Amino acid sequence: MRAGLVEALRARGCPWPAPVEHHDTLSSTNDRLKELARDGAPAWTVVLADEQTAGRGRHGRVWTSPRGGLYLSVLLRPAFASAALLPLAAGVAVAEALGHFGVRAELKWPNDVLSEGRKLAGILAEASSSAFSLEWVVLGIGVNLDEGALPAEVRAHAAALSVEGGGSSVVAALAATVLVRLTVWYDALERRKASVVAGWRERSVPWWGEPVEVSAGDRVLRGRARAVDERGALLIELADGATVSVLAGEARALRRVAGRENRE
User: Any alpha helices (H) in 83-131, and if so which ranges?
Assistant: First the structure.
């Protein structure tokens, strides 16, 4: 897999500037890469696994990670102060990569990638900061590639990318495409943050102006989804006309609420 990914990156005109580490089985690619980050690994170090035994999403939710999926983490060492927009930039990169495989993906705030309303991929950003700066961010990306390998209770609300031939060559090709697009959007994040938000909005689920409910801290906010601002925060208009912003780090769940009056 490692050799296949390195070659696929080179074939796309993107020789990789940092180590690529591949494992047959890991508890979590994010956890392994955090160890490497603490030991001084360079930016853009990549960790891949064929399966994860303790894959997770935001807030510790389980991410089922059987063989046949893409489980990838990449280390970033941003020069900018905030990593709040990184999951959005990664979402755009993943959606564009999936487009190369014939999938029209939509992005659900803050970190879900959907296909026909079902979750196809997820993104998990974990960061380390000092008192003065952001030291590093480990960005984890998981994509379902084999629906048959998912447990029955997961298949009910998950989608999977089905590509003729399958196997490690498809995983390497998808991983390479995701990484190439990530470098593009990471550069945009450093130079043109507004383009990241605009790119994300173009691919977002069409919920704008509709009633939604978001759990944030100990509150449940209900209102109409209006926009995502330059910080990556979701703007919700409450029933009284006030607009509140919810940062991704505060939010536990977002869902559309059909037929319900807006109220806080």
Answer: 86-99
Place of tokens 């989608």: 159
Tokens of 66: 């059987």
Q: Is 36 helix (H, G, I), strand (E, B) or coil?
A: helix
Strands (E), the chain: 20-26, 46-52, 70-76, 106-108, 112-115, 118-129, 134-143, 211-216, 219-228, 234-237, 243-246, 251-256
* pLDDT for residue 138: 97
> How many of the other CB atoms lie within 10 Å of CB of 147?
15
What is the dihedral angle through the alpha carbons of 164, 170, 176, 179, rounded to the nearest 10 degrees?
80
- Using the predicted structure, report yes or no on whether residue 178 has a pLDDT greater than 80: yes
* Residue 173 pLDDT grade (very low, low, confident, very high; cuts 50, 70, 90): very high
From the number of C-beta atoms within 10 Å of its C-beta (0-12, 13-18, 19+), residue 47 rates as: buried
Q: How far is the C-alpha of 220 from the C-alpha of 144, rounded, in Å? A: 30
Q: How far apart are CA 49 and CA 259, in angstroms?
A: 43
Q: Residue 183 burial (CB < 10 Å; 0-12/13-18/19+)? A: middle
Calculate the average pLDDT of the chain: 90
The tokens 């173009």 sit on which residue? 202
pLDDT for res 1: 80
Lowest mean pLDDT among 78-87, 138-147, 230-239: 78-87
Tokens standing for residue 94: 């993943």
Q: Which domains does the chain have, with CATH numbers?
A: 2-202 (3.30.930.10), 211-256 (2.30.30.100)
What pLDDT, on a 0 to 100 scale, did the predictor assign at position 164? 53
Model pTM greater than 0.90? yes
